[in-house]
Specification:
The chain has eleven helices and no strands. α5 packs antiparallel against α9 and α9 runs antiparallel to α10. The protein is globular, with a radius of gyration of 16 Å.
C-alpha cells in the first residue's frame, strides 16, 4: 500500500501516523530507535505490505499488466489504491479525508527532527504540493508515478506506461479493491492487537 492507505490504517494519533510513514524510510531494524508507538507502526507497515503483496486479489490485478510492465505493477497498484481509497473514503473513515491528511502533515512537521534524511528532504514538497490529497484525482496518480519513474536509474518508461494499464482496467482493479481492502483492515486490526501497545 502507499502513503494514504498506511496513514488510514495507522492509529490516528500523531506518533502512529508518523510511524506508518516511516515504514518506507527506515531499515528492517530501524524502528528500534523510536518510541514504542512509532516502532509498532513501522513494524505493522511491513506486515501490511506483506499481506498486500501476497493477497490473491492483488496478484490477480498484477496479472492484468502486460509482460514487460508487470514487474512494476505492484508500485502502480499501491499508488492507484490510494486513489480508490480517496474515492471510497467515506465508507471507511468518519473523519474527512483532508482533515486527516492535514493532521498527518502537522505530525510530520512536529517530528521533523526524528525523520530520516530522505524523508526530511521531500517533506516540504510533500506538504506544499499536498501529495496525499492529490490522490483524490487520477491526475495525482499520474503525477506520483511520473515522479517515481524519474528516480529510477533505468526502465522508468515501463513504470510510466503502467498508468495506461490501470486506466484500461480501472473498473476491474477498483472492484478488486472493494474485495481486498476490508480484509486488509481486519488483518491490520488483528495484527495490531498482538503488539504491546494496544
Amino acid at each position: 500500500m502507499n502513503y494514504l492507505a498506511h496513514i488510514y490504517l495507522a492509529r490516528h494519533s500523531e506518533a502512529a501516523m508518523v510511524g506508518a510513514m516511516l515504514g518506507d524510510f527506515v531499515k528492517a531494524n530501524g524502528g528500534d530507535h523510536y518510541a514504542p508507538e512509532i516502532a509498532n507502526e513501522i513494524a505493522l507497515h511491513r506486515f501490511i505490505d506483506s499481506f498486500t503483496d501476497s493477497h490473491p486479489v492483488v496478484t490477480e490485478a498484477k496479472s492484468l499488466f502486460t509482460e514487460g510492465r508487470r514487474r512494476y505493477a505492484g508500485i502502480v497498484l499501491d499508488v492507484f489504491y490510494d486513489h480508490i481509497l480517496s474515492q471510497r473514503w467515506d465508507e471507511y473513515c468518519e473523519e474527512p479525508r483532508q482533515e486527516l491528511i492535514e493532521r498527518f502533515y502537522g505530525a510530520l512537521a512536529a517530528h521533523e527532527e526524528q525523520l530520516p534524511e530522505r524523508l526530511r528532504e521531500i517533506l516540504p514538497k510533500l506538504i506544499k504540493q499536498d501529495w496525499l490529497g492529490a490522490y483524490g484525482e487520477f491526475s495525482g496518480v499520474e503525477l506520483a508515478l511520473t515522479r517515481m519513474s524519474d528516480r529510477l536509474s533505468r526502465n522508468g518508461h515501463l513504470l510510466r506506461e503502467g498508468i495506461g494499464e490501470v486506466q484500461q482496467h480501472y473498473e476491474a482493479i477498483a472492484d478488486g479493491f472493494d474485495r481486498f481492502f476490508p480484509e486488509l483492515v481486519k488483518f491490520t486490526y488483528q495484527r495490531r492487537r498482538q503488539f504491546s501497545v494496544a
